[in-house]
């Protein structure tokens, strides 16, 4: 084995976590209410990307502290509110949503994140669409 290959391998193993590609990413949320005339397309940011994990196939041989299943999640976020157009007076026309300010690799917190890969509902509009750039 060449010294360059060995040094590259050691560097990759040592600094792999630092090179995780977890960052705020642009995303469009489609929001609609049954009572309202329009669907609102909201451009926001979410946390997305790759986080270094350790394979848990050898969990019987390793300590729990050696295993990690990190996800790209919010480090800092704020909430913004949008007005859904075309709603009748008896309907609350507001929708609040998170905006990722910064992200980190860590455990998924179900208090504010969807930790499941599959989604039941797809992200699309069934009514005429209005764009909201926040």
Write the layout of secondary structure elements.
Layout: H1 3-15, E1 21-32, E2 39-50, E3 71-83, E4 94-106, E5 129-133
Task: Please tell me about this protein's structure.
GO terms for molecular function: hormone activity. Residues 1-18 form the signal peptide. Belongs to the glycoprotein hormones subunit beta family. By secondary structure, the chain is mostly beta strands. It has a single domain (19-131), classed as Cystine Knot Cytokines, subunit B, CATH 2.10.90. Helices cover 10% and strands 41% of the residues. It is built from one helix and five strands. It has one helix spanning 3-15; strands at 21-32, 39-50, 71-83, 94-106, 129-133. The strands form two sheets. It has a three-stranded mixed β-sheet, with no helix packed on it. The chain has a two-stranded antiparallel ribbon with strand order 3-4. A hairpin with a 6-residue loop joins strand 1 (21-32) and strand 2. It starts with a helix and ends with a strand. The model has no long low-confidence stretch (mean pLDDT 76).
CATH topology: Cystine Knot Cytokines, subunit B
Radius of gyration: 21 Å
Query: In CATH terms, what is the architecture?
Result: Ribbon
In CATH, what is the class? Answer: Mainly Beta
Strand content: 35-45%
Helical stretch count?
1
**Secondary structure: helix percent:** under 10%
Task: Assign the structural class, choosing from mainly alpha, mainly beta, alpha/beta, alpha+beta, or little secondary structure.
Answer: mainly beta
Order of helices and strands: HEEEEE
Give the tally of structural domains. 1
Q: Tally the beta strands.
A: 5
Described by strand count, sense and barrel closure, the largest sheet is: 3 strands, mixed
